[in-house]
Amino acid sequence: MTSKISEAFFFSEESDASGKVFATYQEVELRSAFQPIYSLSHCRVVGYEGLLRASQGDIQIPPYQIFSRALDEAGIVHLDRLSRALHMHNYCRMKQGEASWLFLNVDPRVIVQGKYYGSFFQELLAYHGVLPEQVVVEIMEGAIDDEVQLSESVGFYKELGCLVAIDDFGAGQSNFERIWRLAPDIVKLDRSMIVQAMQKSMVRRLLPGIVSLIHEAGSLVLIEGIETVEEAMIAMETDVDLVQGNYFGMPDSQLCIEDESIKVNDLFRRYQVSSSFELSQKCLDFYGQAFKSAVRQMQAGDPPDMACQALLALNRADRCYILDQQGVQLGSSLLAGETAALRVSQRYQPLAEGDGAIWLRRPYLRRALQNPGSLQMTRPYLSIATGQLCVTLSMAVVLDGKIAVLCFDIQWSEEMIAPK
Question: Which DSSP helix (H) or strand (E) runs through 289?
């Protein structure tokens, strides 16, 4: 099989009455469908994923069944290339206006063996006048066991100028090591992660951290498979860059028939009054006045135990402590009365005493020092002193002529926060 395979693709397709190109494979009709991909921040479509639609008469056939009909390696390569050529042709016939990406899936077996079947992709791009940077090549993250071949394939498409997306991350045996090693341009989180976040509050808390970790690795993050407004709101909370799913647009032979930017704008309105926003504000409202009162009392000369007495009496209060500008804790933590007696029996007791501990690495210290006089609040995290989830309020103030940071830990739960 030589590069002439691409020439056959370019000229053997048929067009239907609407001008769309389709192809025939083993008496099965193959067509293109395109699902829009939105940037949440830009509130508009920035790409389309080309998806294969197969039918035999009135019977719809799943794409994986079509690929199972390929009897050998050469047949798989041929069918994969036919699919990409089909999507590229139809996309280019319809695309106009603003720049956008075309996302193309490449069968894992073709990624590994395709190089032995002659050049194809460069010819396909050149034939349609498409720049490599306009194409995102999707590679299924867990489908290739040979790490060397996987790295070589990613390197090939990157050197060509295409963007590379790791697909279905979070499904099966996904691992972050491949993200570090392959450095993809985009990581597509599998729908299973959204489903788990809907079912388990712990996953919902962890998902923003996973997204942040991928961002720090230098990749954009896309969540796929979003089907409801509730799932879309989870995507909003995670700070992902891109979203895809039936909620934003069904796969269609046309490119984004209906503009869903109004729907994305509505998500931002919902987000502003969402539970995460509301929870933060509710927490600050409920504890803020007592916290600021404790600060004023300490600045007036009251000892910390007296100044923080009312604050520690509030519902879900855990402890107060003071740090210097280098993050060193000044004295022992002041414990809420109802929890002080429980500290002796806790499994984390060896970590409970904080006098002299250095909390320089903690976000609540850094944010307070960067915003002196402003009350800061963390996301939920595991308290090293109790082994339970907490949030920390902090504020950098001047005490006895020196900068200090007052910190207040609150026991965190899904039901926060209601007065006793």
Answer: helix 275-299
Largest CA distance in the chain: 87
158's tokens: 């990157």
Beta pairing class for 186-189 and 220-223 = parallel
Numbers of helices and strands, H then E, in the chain = 16, 17
Residue 211 amino acid letter: V
Question: Over the stretch 324-376, which tens digit does the pLDDT of each residue have?
Answer: 999 999 999 999 975 544 544 467 778 878 899 999 999 999 999 999 999 99
**Under CATH, what is the fold of the domain 276-411?**
Beta-Lactamase (3.30.450)
pLDDT of 420 reads: 39
Using an 8 Å Cβ cutoff, are 372 and 391 in contact? no
Sequential DSSP letters for 130-187: --GGGEEEEEETTS---HHHHHHHHHHHHHHT-EEEEEEETSTT--HHHHHHH--SEE
Choose among 108, 78, 86: nearest CA to 5: 78
Ramachandran quadrant class, 10 (left: phi over 0; alpha: psi -120 to 50; beta: rest): alpha
DSSP 333: P
Collapse the DSSP code of 337 into the 3-class scheme (helix H, G, I; strand E, B; otherwise coil) and give the result. Answer: helix
Centroid of chain to Cα 38: 13
**131-177 pLDDT, tens digit each:** 999 999 998 766 666 777 778 888 888 999 999 999 888 776 667 88
Q: Chain-wide mean pLDDT for the chain?
A: 84
3 state DSSP class of 371:
coil
**pTM summary value:** 0.77
Separation between Cα atoms, residue 220 and residue 188, nearest integer Å: 9
* Residue 47, phi then psi, degrees to nearest 5: -175, 170
Alpha carbons 330 and 238: distance in angstroms, whole number: 35
Instruction: Report the C-alpha gap between 178 and 167 in whole angstroms.
Output: 12
Helix, strand, coil % in the chain, rounded to nearest 5:
40, 25, 35
Between the CA of residue 171 and those of 138, 188, 230, what are the distances in Å? 15, 11, 21
Single-letter amino acid, residue 184: P
Q: What is the DSSP letter of 268?
A: H
Q: Residue 414: is its pLDDT beyond 80?
A: no
- Residues 377/280, Cβ–Cβ less than 8 Å: yes
CATH topology of domain 4-272: TIM Barrel (3.20.20)
State the pLDDT confidence band at 264, using cuts at 50, 70 and 90. Answer: confident
Q: Where are the domains of the chain?
A: 4-272, 276-411
